[in-house]
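Hi R.,

Here's the chain you asked about this morning:
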Amino acid sequence: MLFNSLAFLGFLPVFCLLYFATRGQIRLWVCVLGSYYFYAQWDWRFLSLILVSTVVDFVIGLRLDKTDDPGQRKWLLLISMAVNLGILGFFKYCNFFIDSFTAMFDAIGWSSSPPHLNVILPVGISFYTFQTMSYTIDVFRRKIEVERSLLRFATYVAFFPQLVAGPIVRASQMLPQLRVDHALVWDRFLSGGTLVVWGLFLKVAIADSLALVVDGRFENPAAHSALSLAIGVVFYAFQIYCDFNGYSTIAIGVARILGFDFLDNFNRPYFSASFSEFWQRWHISLSTWLRDYLYIPLGGNHHGVGYTYRNLMLTMLLGGLWHGAAWRFVLWGGLHGLYLVAQRVFGGPIVDFLQAIRIPQVVCRQLMIATVFCFTCIGWVFFRAESASDAFFVLQKIFRVSEYQFANVTQKFHVIKGGMLIAGLVLAEWVSFRVNVPRLMTAYPVLRIVGIAFLVWSIAFLGTFGENAFIYFQF
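And the predicted structure, written out as tokens:
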């Protein structure tokens, strides 16, 4: 079920009515069954995978709590990781590895024709497997107490706002909130509803409008001019941001209405002046997950420069592979790994040079923001292109600056509309650095009413309607 669908428009009021009319165990049953229904609207068969992950990690959590033997605890953790990563690996990466090994064998002259399995990628599998794994790892590390209610744990895993596309909510954050019967609070309803409308605006008005320009350019890059492709790349940077941020914002807003607090998943990432800052602002729930459960266990930056660079590269390569079963995603992750390494090597000297030639600090920051954005867009080419070869073709073509003529740009109306939407978004985010908008709306309720009315009008007037799936559903 999509947040931007008529089905969800009917589902949410009914769920809220049942949710606030119940208490205790009955409310948890409403949550878990409602969440299963929400997921089953895509394909009920894959509910079995959620149930397997739920039961396995719940039982392993109980077993971890009962034993202090280091060997047994490690084996229990390995079983959890094997089950979760095994499910994720089979459904998401099975054909990727088959095709990769086939290509490798063909390259060295060993002919092979292994079967290509007809495997469907379950929606949200990358998110809920990471969520259940983090619970088991935290119990293993004794950072959180074990959850003894299977019903409560199942609700945590399947809670519908963040089930299929995040944010990845930690058990330490969510489980304590599930032990409280949240009442309907008018202020939370208003602030949560505002987030829902803002998220729908990001998705329907901006992301889906930009998609009209982006899709054709990446589906057939040879048919477009250099400037047209460059516009497509920039538009995609904002399309994926508004699409994914839109989903996260709706999820956070719905959760807030129901009484739950989720951490922000995006924090104006295109205003980042370094790549490390970018990853502190982009897909925060994933970047912190990779930091806590991969980068730091690998050694982080505590074992010398060489190991730090290795750990950064491994973390970003695996982060890229998490996004999709294709080499272009690995290349995307590898690029960001190189960016982070290059920042550590050259970042300090570049800043010192800019200060030595007396460029004002505010100008230095703007130059760094522009640089980070440009290199981030280069990475997005690999993320969006149909193949790695298409990505290299697009990059080769967009650097032909001499061929930049607006007359050769197709879909001029949609390009101008998209440019205006992007400009409006950038301006709004720039203002949000200087004005605490939520606090202002709380102090002056009329501003909230005007803001919501403007967003609803903008969605109706500027939106692209077709119940387009969110981009991160496929991850």
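The chain has a mean pLDDT of 90.

Let me know if you need anything else.
M.
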